[in-house]
Design a protein that fits this description.
two-stranded antiparallel ribbon; 7-stranded mixed β-sheet; Nuclear Transport Factor 2, Chain: A; alpha+beta
């Protein structure tokens, strides 16, 4: 038997990361996911010990509490998103590197194929009921009968939610994860093209059906609608970088965004992001057919509160390899 505190906070085990990953998938927010785990800890504070169970099977009370609380947040979050300005993207998990044997639960989560930003973007566009049914059943093997109890519907309806969600994910075909070195080389080549203002060279690095998805909630400058197509995205990127003090800010940082190489642009010191629009931003990428296929431009300051803009101290990302162990059974 383990204490409840140990079940939540043991950094050396996979249970904490797994529960955090469950809540993150359902809510799209690390902040909300951590709040869910804290609430579950309070709920079980007087429960003494909890029985150990297989890490892949959320059948004990602890996992059930996290699931139920995350479902509640996912359902309530849908109403908040109705008033969101522009597209909504998941809160990014930004790290400098992913060690081979990491103990950080956030870094463990980013190893999962379905937690890459391109997949989470599509997942978060599902209705909350569809997202809940798909994640709980396919990733965490929760029976439809139990999901139905959380959603207040029949098991048949819960199964239909999951089926529709799977159809949407399959049709969307979000780009799969590629080796980190390949993506890092593409990102560096894009920066070089932007620095020189070489429109032709930049366009050649973009997939014909490339898209940009910005997230600002109206609090900083980015695209308020997705930008599609090589020509439009090329012009958007060149225009965006001209708003910074130089085409490639000297302290631009290579980071991992949900486990894939991306960029952190620290922005300027001005407090008015609309008058001086070089806002702090995290930019994620997805690759298809050797070209950049998706760009995720996250500038909503509420989603970047964890980000440090201090000078980099980590090794270059060209030496970092992603992949390896996967937290989930399914790849989206």
């Amino acid at each position: 038997m383990r204490s409840v505190e140990e079940a939540f906070t043991a950094e050396s085990g996979s249970r904490h990361a797994r529960l955090l990953g469950l809540a993150y998938r359902l809510t799209g927010s690390i902040t909300d996911a951590e709040a869910v785990l804290r609430q579950a800890r309070v709920r079980f504070a007087g429960g003494g010990d909890v029985a150990d169970s297989p890490a892949h099977c959320p059948e004990d009370g602890l996992s059930g509490a996290v699931g139920e609380l995350a479902v509640d947040r996912a359902l309530s979050g849908a109403a908040r998103r109705e008033h969101y300005v522009g597209p909504w993207l998941p809160e990014p998990i930004v790290t400098l590197e992913v060690p081979a044997r990491t103990t950080d639960p956030l870094e463990r989560i980013t190893r999962a194929e379905d937690v890459r930003m391109a997949a989470l973007r599509v997942l978060q566009q599902l209705t909350p009921e569809q997202r809940i049914a798909l994640v709980l059943h396919e990733n965490f093997e929760v029976p439809f009968e139990e999901i139905a109890g959380m959603l207040g519907c029949t098991a048949t309806t819960a199964g239909q939610y999951a089926s529709r969600a799977r159809r949407v994910m399959n049709e969307a075909r979000p780009p799969r994860r590629v080796p980190a070195t390949e993506q890092h080389e593409l990102v560096e080549a894009m920066l070089a093209a932007l620095a020189s203002g070489d429109e032709w060279r930049l366009a050649r690095l973009l997939h014909p059906h490339v898209s940009v998805h910005g997230d600002s909630d109206g609090k900083a400058r980015t695209a308020l609608r997705p930008v599609h197509g090589r020509d439009k995205v090329t012009r958007f990127l060149l225009s965006l970088m001209r708003k910074y003090p130089s085409p490639t800010p000297s302290n631009v940082r290579s980071v991992l965004v949900n486990g894939d190489p991306g960029l952190l642009l620290p922005g300027t010191s001005s407090g008015d992001v609309f008058r001086d629009s070089a806002a702090v931003r995290v930019v994620g990428f997805a690759v298809r057919d050797g070209c950049v296929a998706e760009i995720h431009d996250i500038v909503n300051p509420d989603k970047l509160t964890r980000i440090s803009c201090s000078p980099p101290t980590a090794e270059p990302l060209s030496a970092v390899e992603t992949g390896g162990m996967s937290e989930s059974r399914r790849s989206w």
